[in-house]
């Protein structure tokens, strides 16, 4: 996959699309400048719209890899977060995802909706074999989303978060392609 052929994915309430270079202000206003949003992620809250503009450009360019979607609300067109593969192996069979939504849109099932569609795409259209997620133990909402999407407990670990200069207790969860097909009652191709 390259960023130039990343498809747009849709769900009842969301559109997951490639970032454009013009998305910086919405990234800043709707999620990245909020310290509560950045509390348990690997980056710090943005302190200037310019920082978010650079991020939009990097997402758009594919500097962080190809699988980087902006999460847009169908009803209003607002860009409210992002979901992405933060790592993949060279064969693009195993990936690790990350996601973030602005606080106004928490606890409405939107991350579950976005992750379900992303997993469907990665397993059914791209041929990934495993998708992994990691979350801070202090961030149980993220664990709940992963659990609802079928990711199973793998291990507890401690991870250094360089941007925050601290060690964080995390839980690793994972879903395999076989399990995805099993829980969605689909026949493996
Ligand atoms: C993690 C995040 C993406 C979840 O998004 P969301 O759209 O609110 O998630 P959903 O609404 O789909 O599901 C959240 C679930 O967590 C539950 N939850 C919320 N707060 C909780 C808490 N403190 N303890 C336990 N469960 C909690 C909700 O009740 C819901 O479960 P339910 O559907 O069974 O009721 C969002 O909180 C976020 O963007 N946080 C900031 C960035 C971040 O931490 N990203 C994850 C890094 S691993």
The CATH homologous superfamily name equals Gcn5-related N-acetyltransferase (GNAT)
Bound molecules: coenzyme A
Give me the secondary-structure category.
alpha+beta
| Average pLDDT reading | 97
As a whole number of angstroms, the C-alpha radius of gyration is 16 Å
Q: Low-confidence segments, ≥5 residues, pLDDT <50?
A: none
The fraction of residues in strands falls at 25-35%
Number of discrete helical segments: 5
CATH architecture assignment name: 3-Layer(aba) Sandwich
**Lateral arrangement of strands in the main beta sheet:** 1-2-3-4-5-6-8-7
Report the sheet with the most strands, covering strand number, pairing sense and barrel closure: 8 strands, mixed
Question: N-to-C SSE series?
Answer: EEHHEEEHEHEEH
Number of DSSP strands? 8
Q: Please estimate the helix content.
A: 25-40%
Mass-distribution shape: globular
Determine and state the CATH class.
Alpha Beta
- What count of structural domains? 1
Indicate the CATH topology.
Aminopeptidase
**End-to-end C-alpha gap:** 21 Å
């Amino acid at each position: 996959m390259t960023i130039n052929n990343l498809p747009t994915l849709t769900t009842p309430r969301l559109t997951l699309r490639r970032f454009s270079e013009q998305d910086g202000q919405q990234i800043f206003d709707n999620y990245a400048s909020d310290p509560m949003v950045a509390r348990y992620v690997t980056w710090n809250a943005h302190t200037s719209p310019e920082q978010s503009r650079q991020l939009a450009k990097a997402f758009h360019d594919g500097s962080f890899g190809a699988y980087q979607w902006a999460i847009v609300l169908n009803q209003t067109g607002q860009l409210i977060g992002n979901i992405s593969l933060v790592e993949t192996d060279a064969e693009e069979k195993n990936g690790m995802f990350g996601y973030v939504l602005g606080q106004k849109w928490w606890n409405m099932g939107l991350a579950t909706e976005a992750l379900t569609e992303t997993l469907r795409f990665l397993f059914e259209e791209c041929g990934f074999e495993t998708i992994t997620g990691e979350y801070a133990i202090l961030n149980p909402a993220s664990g709940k989303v992963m659990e609802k999407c079928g990711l199973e407990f793998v291990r507890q670990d401690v991870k250094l978060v360089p941007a925050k200069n601290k060690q964080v207790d995390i839980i690793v969860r994972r879903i395999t392609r076989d399990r995805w097909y099993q829980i969605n009652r689909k026949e493996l191709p």
